[in-house]
Amino acid sequence: MEEAVVMKNVCKDFKVLNRHEGLKGSIKDLFSRDYKTVSAVKDVTMTVNRGEIIGYLGPNGAGKSTTIKIMTGVLEPTSGEILVNGKVPYKNRTENCENIGVVFGQRSQLWWSLPLIESFKLLKDLYMVPEKEYDDMIALYRSLVDIEPILHKPVRQMSLGQRTLSDILAAFLHNPAIVFLDEPTIGLDVSMKSKIRELILGLNKEKNTTVILTTHDMGDVDALCKRIVIIDKGMKIYDNDIDHLKNYFGSYRTLKLKLADDTWEEMLIDEKTTDVMDVIMEKQKEKKIKDVKILEISTEEVIRKIYEGGTK
Amino acid sequence: MNPKRLLALTRAGIMESLYFRLGIFVTLFANLIYLVLVYYLWKAIYASSGTDVVNGMTFTDTMIYLILATAIFNFLEMFVVWDMSRSIQSGKIVLDLLKPMRYRKYTFWSYTGNHVVQFFLTFVPTFIVVMIVTHGAIKFGLNIIWFLVATVFALIINYNIEMLVAPICLFTESTWGINIVKETIVLLLSGATIPLAFFPEKIRMIVQYLPFRAVYDIPLSILLGKSGSDTWDGLLKLFGLQIVWLIVLTVAGNIFWNCAVKKITVNGG
Ligand SMILES: Nc1ncnc2c1ncn2[C@@H]1O[C@H](COP(=O)(O)OP(=O)(O)O)[C@@H](O)[C@H]1O
Ligand SMILES: [Mg+2]
Is residue B269 part of a domain? Predict the structure, then answer.
């Protein structure tokens, strides 16, 4: 079985009550049968291969979390087919859970008042991880990150970064085939982000774990993902290697100009249609330019262009 | 059914409860105040009735019953309704549904640790004090074993009552009111606040077959050798009632929960 996840034409609609304003509206809503349908995921078809780290990207409200909930089995798709580890997740939720790990951004699955090590022991028993495998996993964790300072700390006393780190470790503990990370780096500082990236990369390498990652931080994508899938308004709009993405926008350059007042002005230029030198000369007529830099387009900008409807 | 999982959950629950040790002292203190109130209230009731025995119970009988009922209440108390509504509102329910165990089972065993702690830290001390103060008004024999069995049944029945109420918050969003209604009904009809012997005959006839009684009154009656529990026949009847409700409520709770989960998986909660 090469595929970790197979989705075919998956759709998910939510029925939501049309709420009215004000007190009168709230009372009216009590008896209202006035529903509207929100399509969170529309006709998504994709395959995730074993051992892959894929970046699942899209603007807020695009349907990323909904897709992940469908893959984990907490949500039932309205239509379409889905197989995770060869099984239909929502029909075998409990069974599916034994083989996946999940981290939902700012929500922790750890036992709040217990030291981390106790949460680990509990998870070990819940997932029935053999003693030897558990010890090996802890040893692997030790080799990848410095877990000593957090291992005996109650989760409630941890910083956000430490907690996220702990949650990621907890998600990998039973050596699941797939780990879902829904915005794991949200709100973290630069050094914690890089620590977490290294950890995810290391675990993926050692255990060949499939990782499905959603994030708004292109640093995560650059560091971790070879392939990205982008959805917008529930529809898949891009699914390919990240290199391909840059080729797609290969003729784009970021032009940075340092002006007389020492500020940098940035613009994105398509070399196919515009000549970079023309732009510089044009600018020079208006203001004095002290320095010029021409850079390749960054992932950040590529993604922004796609969100803004740059493809097709 | 893997006992290791269940023990691990219980163990974690014990550690979590002990972490909030202050809460235990607060419970004990609140109990004390409550019991002082109860003492004077019933003293007044007995004084105004003009006889020593009301509805077949002496003042001491009533006090023993109510003190122990309070102690049982403390260790059987669960916060399923409260916890579930919070976890649905915050979306944490998703994480609980993603545990490799059935949700109902997982939740039940997440609470057992707290029951164990409460049993040893509130029920046992209260019981010992009552034993000493009343100079052996409570028989100490086989009834203790039967009491423990009845308590386990009561625990499961109570959990299932909670699980029949808690998912309502998926449909109404006003959990607070529902919880209050549930608490009041359970406390009143279970005999935890007023001994069932004091209920009017007709109401008692109905109440004694309801499941609420199986939570507090039956274990307590068995402990105190009341309600015919001192004969095999009577004991069997009490256990029979508990087991019937246990089965009925477990089945009903299961069905209701499956509907509720459908609402979460289909409409996202
Ligand atoms: N339980 C729900 N009920 C109704 N609408 C929902 C529910 N969950 C998500 N949605 C809607 O579905 C869309 C996609 O949401 P989500 O998957 O959370 O987006 P993302 O994770 O990409 O930010 C949004 O418009 C959101 O409002
Ligand atoms: Mg999201």
Answer: no
Question: What pLDDT does B122 receive?
Answer: 85
Task: Count Cβ atoms within 10 A of the Cβ of residue B249 and give its class: 0-12 exposed, 13-18 middle, 19 or more buried.
Answer: buried
Burial B132-152 (b: 16+ CB within 10 A, else e): eeeeeebeeeebeebbeebbe
**B177: pLDDT strictly greater than 90:** no
Provide the percentage of residues in chain A whose pLDDT is more than 90.
63
- The mean per-residue pLDDT over the stretch B6-13 comes to 93
A42 in contact with ligand 1, CB cutoff 6 A: no
Domain carrying residue B195: 3-261
Answer yes or no: is the C-beta of B225 below 6 A from any ligand 1 atom.
no
User: Does residue B188 lie within any of the structural domains?
Assistant: yes
Quick one: tokens of A70? 């469908």
Tokens of B102: 């059935």
Which atom in ligand 1 lies closest to the alpha carbon of residue A183? 21
Q: Is the CB of A236 under 6 A from ligand 1?
A: no
- Ligand closest in space to the Cα of A183: 2
CB A173 within 8 A of CB A127: yes
Q: From chain A, which residues contact B within 8 Å (Cβ)? A: 14-15, 66, 69, 72-76, 90, 93-95, 97-98, 100, 102, 104, 107, 109, 111-114, 118, 121-122, 125-128, 154
Chain B CB contacts of A118 below 8 Å? 12, 15
> 3-state secondary structure string, A91-113?
CCHHHHHCCEEEEECCECCCCCC
- Rounded to an integer, what distance in angstroms lies between the CA atom of residue A123 and that of residue B94? 17
* ipTM (interface pTM): 0.85
B232-251 pLDDT per residue, tens: 888 898 999 999 999 999 99
Is residue B102 pLDDT above 50, yes or no? yes
Which residue's CA is the closest to the ligand 1 atom numbered 7?
B268
- In total, how many domains does chain B have? 1
Structure tokens given for B135: 């100079």
Contacts of B99 in chain A (CB under 8 A): 94, 97, 126
pTM of the model: 0.87
CA distances to A18, A220, B165 from A31, rounded to whole Å, are: 11, 46, 22
Could you read off the pLDDT of A217-259 as tens digits, one per residue? 989 998 999 999 999 999 998 898 887 777 766 677 788 888 8
Strand partners, A36: A16
* B120 found inside a domain: yes
Residue B269 is predicted with a pLDDT of 61
Residue A68 CA to ligand 1 center (angstroms) comes to 11
Ligand 1 contact via A19 beta carbon (within 6 Å): no
Which residue among A66, A212, A307 has the greatest number of ligand 1 atoms within 8 angstroms of its CB, and so is best to mutate? A66
- Rounded to 5°, the CA angle B119-B99-A162 comes to 90
Query: What does the block give as tokens for B150?
Result: 């009845």
Is the pLDDT at A167 greater than 90? The verdict is yes
Residue B186 confidence (pLDDT) above 90: no
